[in-house]
Protein: C2H2-type domain-containing protein
Organism: Rhizophagus clarus
Amino acid sequence: MSFKCPLCMRIFSQRFAYTQHAQKCLKNVEVEVEEDDDNNDSEKYSSEMDTRSNLSSEYENDKVEVDDDNDVQNMSFDSIGSAISEMSLEDSNFENILDSSEEPEIFEEPKNLNTKTCTEFPNDAYKDLMLLVTKYKINNKGGNEIIRFFNKHSNLTESPLPKNIKQGRAFMNNMKFSNLEFSKVLITKHEDKDYFLYYQNLIQCIKNILTVPDITQNFALSYENYEYNRESIYSEQNTGKWWKTTQESLPTGSKLLSIILYSDATTTDTLGKSQLHPIYITLGNIPIWRRNKQDAKQLLGYLPILEAANKDLVRDTFHKSLRHLLEPIILLKDGIDLFINNENTWFYPRVSTIIADWPEAASFCLVYKSSNSNLPCYSCLVKRENLANIDLSVNNVILRTHDEMRKHFENDTQRSVCIESVHNFFWDLPNINIYLATIPDRMHHLDLGLFRYQIIFTCDILKSQHVNGNKLVEEVDHRLAAIPRFPGIKIFSNGLQSIARLTASEYRSLMKVMIFVIDNLYDENNNEVDNFVNNDDLTKLYEYWNEMYILSRYEEFSESDLEKFNDAIHRWAQMFVKAFKFVSPSNLKLPKLHSWVYHIIDSIRSYGAINGYTTETYESLHKYFVKIPYRISNKKDVEPQLLRTIKRQAISIRMSQHSVNPAKTPRTCKFSARLFKFSLQDANTFLMKKKIPYHNKVWFSDIAISMDSEESNDYISDKGLCYGQALLLAEVLTDPPLNLALIQWYDFKSKRNPYLYGCPHLKLIELYNFVAIESIHGVVHIVPQFDKQNEYFVNKYIF
């Protein structure tokens, strides 16, 4: 296949070379592509150039015009806070972005368009067309064909539709909704380049969150001293110590409005060459279960990303942007009235927590980012050589405070405490210690942090301390591929070959099965290898990890729970250090290890359960607010284009009439015809023949059966549960009919030691029974014990 440039007629054999040439050629040649009603010229042009060159050429002449007299431009569009959850329901459609045959979206407004702002479409046909185009990501060419088809067959003297899709998009861009306005302001200028902050007013953003349906149900208005058995309970944020001390500092009769921020620069292309820096907001007053949904969060703005060798200028730009976003907190000396649950309530907004990965947290705290600095922890003054020391006394863990850090900054001794030479804006905010408010989040600290290290170091140990180390890694891959399938668990059919690209969700799938993969993997130290890690210790490490991780997911913590959690953390950390200190290049001087061991318990006491500050849903927001809008932009001056794309999507969702599917009534099992019959005496032989009908694999379901109180005394059970394979569902035609399941039972492998690694240790026995389907407790994940015959584990690590 060859590619011909329509401008200079040169022919290229490779698409990449042609694309590079087209971009250069366009700089020397002005191309005007006029689009008539039939779009003939555009179609011809599209047939000669691929999508990438189309995108470049169209946008050379279609610049986004900005009328900016005061370096501030308002771009109005509808709130998407209440719509984002419905946007996720359209996930499959929302990801169906421009393919290689589509032309790029044009953002230039037609000259003859009436740019008067409005809140309604001219007519229903116009509205339905643009909602269709927006919802299904139809490009300009396809949309224009729809317009032409409609005009041809409608027999109307005057078309109710826009002249073309560009005009329709421009109309949507000019629609105005007062409840959400994004603005841009010049933050700094560097090397003749302006760096803007695109942002939403903080108070208006908060009001948008409060308009989301049911968001204010159980809205926390005061500190709750929650106790059980004379123990303090920490769950929601208003049960933590920070809320109590902050509320006591406010005027009598006022309420605390807790602001939670999340910020994370994210790449926008597959090569990672381009970045955007969104910052999001939610409220700590909202219950955790509701707050962790996508529509409880709002995009606060896009922070400028300064490219400069002067890193202090980069940091100063970051904090200037934060000051502009959060300055209303300082200016609202008398608080603000908000309409909550049908009445006005007097609030004082305060920043409670900031959720961020380690580099981002260092930017908020303005401490040295490098883990090789003398004091690498942003929360305390621990020395680098003590990062792997999990037995530090309280005197060795001195917390950072605003007063102390500001004093070093003013005395020009900031290097002694490893903080940057830039004024920290958060020193000026009330009721916050930025060094403690920037809390460790579970996803970055555990899923993508410490557990990732644990997997990498495990592979290093297998390779280094065994003659056949590579074969052991291959055996790990083989076992991972052989794990039985189960809902919510990814099967790694290719093993750990792509570990560097695993997502947090995939690491959580590994957590659930790695203990069974490592179990019984290799023999003892027959070759007398130094610092040998035996198989039992390595398996125990994964058991301790799972115990600690499950505790971290508690919805509430009593003081005794925190003590138990702290013991679990130290038990795992001791085994982690013991196993990996000789294979870690840094000797386990990992800031995340120290932070998790020494600061997570205090974070729970201050701000509530860890589930309240996880980043899973924030990460998914990147897709809607950054990645997908970026992919349909022209990659130049992208922020205004992103905001217009998000605006049109919000308008589409707001104005669409969503039909509610009626709830389906659960139905009992229905049996249409008899498939076969057999004698119960020959059940074993018959069923063995029938167990291989599905892709040459055994076809059954592992289930747990609830035993009644009388039967549970006759068997060893797992807290009233027994396990079996459901081989057959049957209906006995009595009055009323009986719905039964034929079960082949598992039994405990050892009566004396029924559990191994905290999981029931089973064997499959030749015992069959029919049980009532109603007694089935649920499906369970049963994993074979590798290199053992007829030995199984019930996976208790499904979290």
